[in-house]
Structure formats: C-alpha cells, structure tokens
Amino acid sequence: MNFDLKTLELAAAASEKCDLLVALIPEGFKPGQDALSALAALALKNGDLSVKAGKHLQMYQAPAIAARRVVLVGSGDGSARAARQAVLAVGAAVRAPQTKRVVVCVAGAAKPAAVCAVVQAVAEASYVYTSTKSKVEARGLNRCVVGVPNAADAREGFDSGVALVAGVEFAREWGNRPANHATPTLLANAAKTLAKLPRVQCKVLGPAEVARLKMGAFLAVARGSEEPLRFIELRYNGAAKDKAPVVLVGKGITFDTGGISIKPAPEMDEMKFDMCGAASVLGVFRALGELQPAINVVGLIPACENMPDGRAVKPGDVVTSMSGQTIEILNTDAEGRLVLCDALTYAARFKPAAVVDIATLTGACVIALGGVRSGLFANNDALASALQDAGNEAEDLCWRMPLDDDYADGLKSNFADMGNVAGRAGGSITAAKFLQKFVGDMPWAHLDIAGTAWKGGAAKGSTGRPVGLLVQYLLNQAQAPVSRPAVKPAAKRSPRAKAV
Ligand code: BES
Ligand code: MN
Ligand code: ZN
Description:
The chain is of the alpha/beta class. It has two domains: about 1-150, Leucine Aminopeptidase, subunit E, domain 1 (3-Layer(aba) Sandwich), CATH 3.40.220.10; about 170-480, Aminopeptidase (3-Layer(aba) Sandwich), CATH 3.40.630.10. The protein is built from 15 helices and 20 strands. The chain has helices at about 10-15, 35-45, 80-90, 90-95, 110-125, 150-175, 185-195, 205-210, 215-220, 275-290, 335-345, 365-370, 380-395, 425-435, 465-480, and strands spanning about 1-5, 20-25, 55-60, 70-75, 100-105, 145-150, 200-205, 230-235, 245-250, 250-255, 295-305, 315-320, 325-330, 355-360, 375-380, 400, 420, 445-450, 455, 460. Strands 7, 8, 9, 10, 11, 14, 15, 16 and 18 form a nine-stranded mixed β-sheet that branches. Strands 1-6-5-2-4-3 form a six-stranded mixed β-sheet, with helices on one face. The chain has a three-stranded mixed β-sheet with strand order 12-13-17, covered by helices on one side. α3 runs parallel beside α5 (about 110-125), α10 packs across α15 and α13 (about 380-395) packs across α15. The site of zinc ion has 5 residues, from β10. Zinc ion binds near residues 253, 256, 274 and 336.
C-alpha cells in the first residue's frame, strides 16, 4: 500500500477525491470557515459527535465534500494512543473492499508520534492475508493520504510509521503462513531476501554446521522432523564496527506438536504461530533496512519443527548444550527453551551490549498476562526499563516479571545439570530461569510473547508484535549509544522523532 503525507487542513481535505475521508477531531477543536469544520462543530454542539477517542459519526455524499463517505472521529488528547484508537474505531470503513483510497486528516496539532500511529493503525485495519488463498481477494486499500497542518513537521513520524508498517507486515505474513508454507528452509530464504536491504547481511547454517557448533539442545528438538533445521544469522551494520551490537534471538519453531510429549488436538493448528519470535526478528530487520539508524544489530533464529517420530528425542533423554551444560529433557513440549539456550550461548561471541530473546515460550504467560502485555524478564534493570519505555512509546506493552533464584529450584535433575521443566507453578518464570542459565553476565532480557503474538478465534492471525517495541528500543539506543552506560537525554523526547 502507498502512503503519502500532505499539508492539508480540513478545508482542503474536503476537496480531496477519495472513497473515504476520515477526519480526526481532537479536544479543543477550533472549527474554521469551511463546510467540514462546520459539520464537525454542529455535530459536537448537538452531542452527535464527541472528541472522546474513537467516538464517530459517518456521513454519505455530504454537500461540498468530494469524498463519497466521510467519518468524523474523536481523537481525544491527540496522543499516539488516542490517534490509534480513533483510526481503529473506524477500522471497518477503512477495511471495506470498496475503500481503495482513503484520506486521514489530522485536525489541529499533529504530533509526530500521533502521525506515526495513524499510519500504523491504517495498515493494521486494512491488512489482509492472501498468501495461501486461491481467489486473490487483495487488500482493498491501495492508497492512504495522511493530511496534517504542516507536512514538514510530521515527516519524521510519518517515515517511521511507514518503515514500521513494512516490518510489522513482514512479521504478520510469516507468522500467518501455515507450517507447510513456512518451513525452516523457507523462513531462512525469507531472511536471505532481507539481505537486499542496505547494510543488512544474512548467513544460514544447516544441520552439519550446527552439529559442528555442538548445539546439542537445538539438534535434539529438530531430530523428530523430516524438515532440516536452519540457524539464521542476520546483521545490520549501522554503526562503527567496534560498536557492541544488540543481539535479538527469535524462537523459530515452525510447528510445535509437542513432540513425544504430544499436545492435545484442539487448537493445535495455532502452533504454526510458534515462530512468531523469529518473525518479529525478521520484521525488525525489515524496518531497520528502511530506517537506517546508527546502531549495530545481530538477529539469531534457531528454526526447526518439533515433531514426534522414531528418531525424536524422548522424555528422560539427556543432551549436552553448546554451553557444555547437560539437560534432562523431561518434557519434549518445552522445546523453545532448548533451541533458545544454544542460540544464547552463540550470542556471546558478539560481545553484545544487550541480548533480547523473543519467544512464544509458555502457555503460563498467556494465563498470567493474557493478550494485552508481553512478559518481560531481565537480569539488568537498565535494559528492563529501556524495553518497558519503548513498549509504552510504541503502544506495544510489556510487563516485568520476577527472576528470583528460588524459582530455579524445580529445574534440578538427578541425571543432568538441569531439567527442562519445573512443574506447573510459575511456568513462565521457571522457563525464564532456564534461559538465564545460558546468558552468563551479558545484559539479557526475555520477552514471552505467547499471549500477544497472535489472536485466536474469529480474528485468528498474527499481530506482528513486538516489532513496534523492539524497533522503538533500537531507535532509542541509536540516540543514546549502547556502548556508553544508558543515560536518558534530559529533554523529553518525542517518540520516534529524532532517530530517522
Ligand atoms: N509453544 C508452546 C507455548 C505456547 C502454548 C504458546 C500455548 C501459546 C499457547 C511451548 O513450546 C510449550 O509447549 N510450552 C509448554 C511448556 C510446559 C511443557 C512446561 C506449555 O506452556 O505448556
Ligand atoms: Mn512446546
Ligand atoms: Zn513451542
């Protein structure tokens, strides 16, 4: 889809030819002399419209307005959050197949973060999955003009919005693809396409190379599958070579049957989404390719299927991880931590400023936090705050969870250095404690996205989270270089504004 930014007051917006004109009306709205302003003012006065974010009023072929359909929608305090709410509230109109061209006019002051949010919300509302459908019911919307009082002021927010949309849609696409259309090999090929972007490189390892690295835990998970594993290594070089990178590690289980500890049938199809951590890493690189920030980033993706088979790893088997630590695999369904632990050991070779892993790791995290916030675990307070702040700025929320050592007690094993599970209680935390055994003293954070990466039910599909949080975090790091201790700039920054 094409996005354009234009200087456009409501008066001028009224003469824009389009299928749908969305006018965002904020608190303290000052109507001009034009027809559209007059309509909005009258509707507000009569109580038929409110400036509360998301409250809206639709009209058809309104006099003196070129657009066939017009929606006036309240945009509250004009914040990014309110702008997003406003656009999503009229999502059905944006998504309608007859809406080919939309103009979204932000009346009043248009903060860069709000413009960024508008772009993202229009994309979110109009996204359609098509890859494996025979009748190509393509996305109806093909052009979106964002109208603001001053295009120059909004440019940076707009550009980051467009870059984020590319990243989020890349992640959604790969998350949504069924497992037979998103094998480890296909995922690696998708990663390779990203190397066409400036400053992005990609390297892919196969089973023999992974065996040579002695990634015994990763190899154990992949054993039961006919599909060969892939270990994907992406690089984005935006800063000097000697600048320590941020390493992102994404869980890439392209299908999780549970293995020999097989899952029950209901909703097992949703385990195609078990590579959404990996997809978010790919999405981040897609966005970095557009944004070109001054930072170094490494992306690592251990990708394989978790299948039951004659050769599959069995409950009770003991394997040796790349770190040398041995693991008793008590439950083959706790496979995510097994592929991640070897990738985390591998991450140390980059001497990272920070390592962040992203994984659909535990059902327990869905119980704890639902679909609103991702679980955040960290061994470093500065890193945890930076990720929380980024989540708040990007409207892609997370919540910090504890990592007390007592939570690791249940991981003790009589036959290996550790077991891979520790009972049902605190399941998302014990999983994080397992991962922590592999990070040494690197600043490390773990995002459990089991509840946020996709939606079930009628709206079943990938959300593209937490691409927004991660990109925001990386942009903030580019402003406050990661090689120095993270100090927050004194002046309040407007989200996403300076980094582009
Ligand atoms: N991929 C799942 C986690 C998951 C389950 C995410 C349901 C979203 C919805 C993971 O590999 C898994 O199976 N975890 C187990 C761990 C258990 C065996 C300790 C779980 O959460 O049940
Ligand atoms: Mn599992
Ligand atoms: Zn899994």
